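FW: tagging you since you asked about this chain on Friday. Here's the raw sequence from the shared folder, copied in full. Didn't touch anything.
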Amino acid sequence: MVTLEPPVGRTSRGTVPASRRNHRLMIQMRRARRILSALVASSVLLAATATPGLAVAVVGDGTDDQVTGLTCVRHDGGTDAAIDHCNDSNTSPAADDVAGDGDSDSNDGGSRRQGNEPFAVIDPTDPDFVVAGWNDYSQTDLGAGWQGFAYSTDGGEGWTNSFVPGYPADTSAEGMASPLFGRHTEAGDPIAAFDNAGNLFVGGISFNRGGAINGDVYVATYATTPDESGYPVDYLRTRIVGKGTPSRNFWGIFQDKPMLEVDRTGGATDGNVYVCWSRFTGNGQNKIYFSRSTDMGDTFSKPIQLSVHGFTGSVQGCDIAIEGDGDVYVTFRTFDDASVVGENALFFARSSNGGASFAPARKVRDFVPYAPNDGSRDCGDGPFACPTGFVFARIPLEPRSTADQSSSSDGVWLAYNAVDPGTIVGSASSYRSAGGGQVGRSVVYVVRSTDDGASWSDPIKVDDASGIGHQFFPDIDALGGGLAVVWQDSRTDACYSLQRPIGNDEDATACDDANVVNTFVATSADGGDTWSSTKVSDVGHQPQYEMFGNRNIPFQGDYNWVAITDSNGLAEGGLEAYVVWTDNRDVVPGTDPRESGPADGFDVWQCRTETSPGVFGPDTCANAGGLDQNIYGNRVSVP
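HL: got it, structure written out here
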């Protein structure tokens, strides 16, 4: 049994300013009292007094925080094959020499495997306690992929890695009792939120890549008290919220693309847990569904369909925003699919009774989606090769919404990236990004409603960046009068052109300069009318390294995350946000021996043996850095 160092007030590590230490003492006293208190979030309900135009700045130690690829622990202090693999940095090009142990390559560990699609949430009772999640691939050699879970007790400077219980190799009693255990080999699309008391709710999807798919949406609940092992939150249970079918090849019901939020308003619906997702069926007619829990995630209501009236095309990308009066907004997008005629638009559905029922969904606005495509939305090598030879990962559009739960009058904001109509031109090749035969520039926009969705503002560009680079994967959060938006941005791409994908030179090779994509944050203190932005990543990265599909195709995930907290006490005028993003800075490039001709610069380090002329075996050094995609984060001010 491995025993973790018990945290002191869950904020015992790290060096922080005196003002935050003083605030920490106040927080610790609140945490001690909360066992006897029904509400401990009074500081969250105060209003900030930030001044418009003040610049966002990186705080903490001023450098990017590596969130993944660090020491792994189990929620109960024990260990198992998955925890051991996560901590194993060994790598060797030798073939597997231990047959039948369940590990496809016993010479390779799993500590340098991919991580993407991160969330980060901050405990409202302790601004130094941050939790993150991501799609974790460290169990790949064990035939599984799971949802990573990490925690920081010093505001995001240092992290400890873990997993949501229930993964195939989990030998803990609680993990084996999870409804995910034994039914699923994969868990991802991570989402999370805290309630006012510091209880944590973590969700996602779980499924199997082969056999009975069983594509479910789940929510795991963690209590505020540390586990006896010292793990800073105590895992309580996991519940299936939306259940898939065991059909094969994804032809049955598959629940996907979920989002989660918790009511922290302090009102009658405080503590309600809300979940939305896309329900896919074999005939392609996907719908948006919603469920709620009113008993701290122990039970969830029967799912209800929100995309009911007037929808003929596909719907995806739901998010949840809760106004200070408890009104619930579920936002999502629709598609103009070639197979099912629809429209490219943003929609919302509103509930005024705590998610018990919703008014019919209404349109926010139309838009032109930024959708790189060259006969496929994923292009690479081998079976993924596209006509132009360009290499690029998919960039789906998932609009994100938020509301300031400390205010009943500020309204709702919706952030999304879309093509700036003024940039659309004809494509010079089969590659397109703004619809058939066209290319355009992707920009992050924000719209707002202050009248329960009856009307929405015209879209405002968060940062035009002098018309250079593509912006994608935005997320938005609001608290105490402050707004923050995070996104990834290719304005530093030396090969930038509307006529080709991010990070590609004109000859379909990787841009020589790896400083292709960086992470930016913008903040506003006037409701989103004006914004101040800055680059928050220390190092840029090449997003198109071919780490997936047997080292043939890139993947960056589908989103990033931002969460605002009362960091120094609102009486001191301090709001801060923690942001996380997917990053390829640690990936080791290489040469793919299966390819002939000059290297294109998108290949990663790998070890393959030619078994017969032109036929190569699997990569036998997957832990040598070629797959070392990580999650990074940073803490920023919210003026």
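FW: Helices lie at 18-33, 81-86, 173-177.
HL: agreed, and The chain has three domains: 1-37+68-252, 45-63+375-639, 253-266+275-335+345-366.
FW: great, closing this out.
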